Model the fold of this input.
Amino acid sequence: MLTHLDSQGRANMVDVTAKAVTAREAVATSRVRMRPETLDLIQSGGHPKGDVFAVARIAGIQAAKRTHELIPLCHPLMLSSVKVDLFPEQPDAVRIEARCKLAGQTGVEMEALTAASIAALTLYDMCKAVDKGMVIESTCLLSKQGGKSGDYLRETDAC
Done:
């Protein structure tokens, strides 16, 4: 059931006033495929733009905190934790994992998905001069805990 519609079928922000404050957590992932030489360049620390993983990590964290400004009808949330990790996958990919937590009245799935997506886009942006053929292959929710709709766990750790 779509809950972003009012009684007249118009889009609106869901009223979460009556919902209980509970611990909530969501984990999302994204994968960027690139040429093996590009991954080698990133890992060697020799990229002309500096530490690509550090910049992508910060971009993902910032994006999670601003999700409500990017996605219509998302609630502004006081996230208690945002963690973005980047994992090289030999020979030619980077897997990004974003984890968002809070104690609140609504979930953090969109924040985790936004963090993973923006980290992937930042990785692309920083490396496009050396590899325009990179592909952001997939972004998906891996898990969520807490809230009225219950827990969710993707059956595989890949999208």
